[in-house]
Amino acid sequence: MSLPLAGVLIIEANSAECPLALRLATSLAGRIAADLGADVIKLEPPEGDPVRRVPPLLGDIGAMFAFLNAGKKSVTIAPAEEKRVLDRLFRKSDVAILDHHMSVRHGAALLPRVAAVISMFGAGVPSSAAASEFTVMALGGLLDIVGDPDHEPLRLGGHQLAYSAGLSAYAGIVAALCQTPVGDRREIVRVNLLDVAVWLNWKSATIAAWSGRAPNRCGRASEWQVIRCADGWVALVYQDSDWPALQELVGDPRLGDSRFQTRAQRRLHARELAGIIEQAISPRRRDQLREVALTRRVPLGPIWSPAELERDPQNLARDFLGRISLGGDASVLMPRLPVLWDGEAFRPGRIPVSSESVEMQRS
Amino acid sequence: MTRPLNGCRVLDLGIITAGAATSALLADIGADVIKIESPTYRDPFRKWTSTPPPDATSSLPPFFRATNRNKSGISLDLKSAAGNEAFLRLVERSDVVVENFRRGVMPRLGLGYERLRAANPQIILASISSQGDTGPDAGYVSYGSTLEAVGGLAWRTGYSDDGPVVSGRDLNYPDQVVAIFAAAMIMTAWRARRGGSGGAHLDLSQRELTSFLSGEAFVAAAATAESPRNGNAQAPHLVQDCFRSSDEVWVAVTIDGRDVPALERVLGRGLETDGTDALRVALAEWISARDSSSCVERLSAASIAVAPVLNGKQVLDGAGRGWNYGLTRATDGSLVKGFPFQLEASPLAISCDAPALGADTAEVLTKIGGYSRAEVAALASAGVIELDDETARQPLRTTQ
User: What is the nearest CA distance from A188 to chain B, expressed in angstroms?
Assistant: First the structure.
């Protein structure tokens, strides 16, 4: 299969003052494009992208850097050379992925035909305002809705908002590439973390607009929540129509109680209901629960760690996690792009463990 | 104004969020999206149990309206031979089919990829499923938070020294992100097809996307034995958490090493940063003694990342202050889903409201399917299609 983005040249670059979240978003958009066959050149300052040093470290390279930059070519430029090199590279390239400060510094006139510009906020907040991925999640309602009401609001693991912004940037870029070029018209793709957060959290705002009351985190009183089993945890997830099958799977006569017979009643008694189910399944292991959930078609989710998922039957069957070299004998687990295209996978490229100097680029 | 996906016709079998929101995003970028329901099956989002508020501007339920604006809508029974044939006729004249049924439904309808490709070799079929089209778990029933569990995200979400946590029913995170990724892959395939690559079958697994968005945890899996759940703390930040202010608002703060001198000035005291909890404790004390607006004002004046923790209602009240299009208004003024990005030269916009059931059946079948009005009337009386009330009242049989 010839790769769908073969022949597309993409430059990604971040300013020195760029918040971590925007580096991650920039890099994820570039990683997706690289897997799909684009030539992606990542520009780094002489001391390297700070993400290289974000723990956990594998030797001297951060796991997040390895994940986000597989398949790219890394090029180092000194600050004094930056403007000249970027102008030159932009002229030759199809797409630029930049944070807001970087795009302002270089001016729209010099950008390639498609440029994605990523910022923390959209209009209405000064671009100089200090913010982190976490504080933008707070403003987008993504913290308030997760966790336990008796404890502080909770972020989702990892960098879900920055990565969602990276997905959005890639989507915007490919949308712009679909546009038939008209003269020298340029398309700027705007992505900001707060609009992405609001977009992701649309249900909460829609419920609030409709009922006057926003949903909030309910902890042990949640309709969907995590409960214990013999060797770990399982997510208790079900819709109204799954209730009879769930009852059978759990096999505890207390579920037949009149307090649990409608969705409204189950929500009202969610804490007690989860307690009963937890007690009933406590002798069962996650692999047993997987088996029975599969046969009875109940959406229970055994909770697996990333290390355990390397040997997961579904991931093995779909060849989702491969190993790629970290230089020398070391290798790491690396998820491929989550799509099979006519049954074929896109293999992640090599990790740019070290950068090349810009001198190579001039030739 | 031309939009990037002008000329791309999408048959949208997507339901609830994952499928329907994917097609909605394609519509926002200029695709002609036809939502297909059936006389025997409606998008579950058409059901909404609570009473509408007195100022409701639309009779359609809010989740349905939010996710299906910018589409036309038809009702066609794919299980009947005549309905199946009508669908394939539309496939011949379309570019993309989006579906997120349970695995096996499309083949059982006689509408697997091979059949669609026989009707139109250029067709792009996007199959969005929870676990993927293949593998032992392909038939595993899952909703968004199931995938957080089996995809590795729940394992790394939670308070320190406590169990895993899922995003839950009101956020249902994996169902949201998949629409961005699936729409992006469909556009990638559409662009490649214009370059001569032909049609394609895109097998999109929501579980794999959930894992991919935790990619660094897989890369680090073998190398680290670190505690998987740390509450809100996160490397490389010195301190990151929510703290309760005197007016009982949670205030989210992220402190980096370089912020310490500024924080010392705001707090009016020296701070230890040698890995002890001193900085955190000092900040918690300082915030607990002040109201939230004063905390936010003083910390942000010192260029420290800070924000009040808002709920969905407060988020809405903040429209125009840092967000402008993540949610937007339909032409009737009701709140609908907006866009996760914006294009400057050809902006994404809402041009029509979500369709009533069967609103465009007659027009789509005649103009795109090539059916005569008499044939449409016959399909309607056979129960293969549903027409909107107005069309149904018109004397279709007599006008050719």
Answer: 5
What is the tens place of the pLDDT at every residue in B241-291? Answer: 999 999 999 999 999 999 999 999 999 998 887 766 889 999 999 999 999
**Of B61, B280, B84, B98, which Cα lies nearest the Cα of B185?**
B98
Query: Which one of B142, B157, B318 has the shortest CB-CB distance to A299?
Result: B142
Instruction: Kindly determine whether residue B176 and residue A299, on different chains, have CB atoms separated by under 8 Å.
Output: no
Q: What CATH number should be reported for the domain whose range is B9-213+325-393?
A: 3.40.50.10540
The DSSP element (H or E) to which A329 belongs, if any, is: none
Give residue A75's domain range. 9-203+348-362
A246 plus A102 within the same structural domain: no
A359 Cα to chain B: minimum distance (Å): 31
The pLDDT of residue A330: 84
Beta strands in chain B (DSSP E): 9-12, 32-37, 72-76, 96-99, 124-129, 200-205, 239-244, 250-255, 305-308, 327-329, 335-337, 342-343, 385-386
Number of structural domains found in chain A: 2
pLDDT tens readout for residues A203-254: 999 999 988 899 999 999 999 999 999 999 999 999 999 999 999 999 999 9
Per-residue pLDDT of B282-311, as tens digits, reads 999 999 999 999 999 999 999 999 999 999
This model of the complex carries an ipTM of 0.97
A239 vs B contacts (CB less than 8 Å)? 143
Give the minimum alpha-carbon distance from A284 to chain B in angstroms, rounded to a whole number.
17
Q: Which residues in chain B have Cβ-Cβ distances shorter than 8 Å to A109?
A: none
Q: Where are the domains of chain B?
A: 9-213+325-393, 239-316
Task: Please report whether residue A213 resides in a domain.
Answer: no
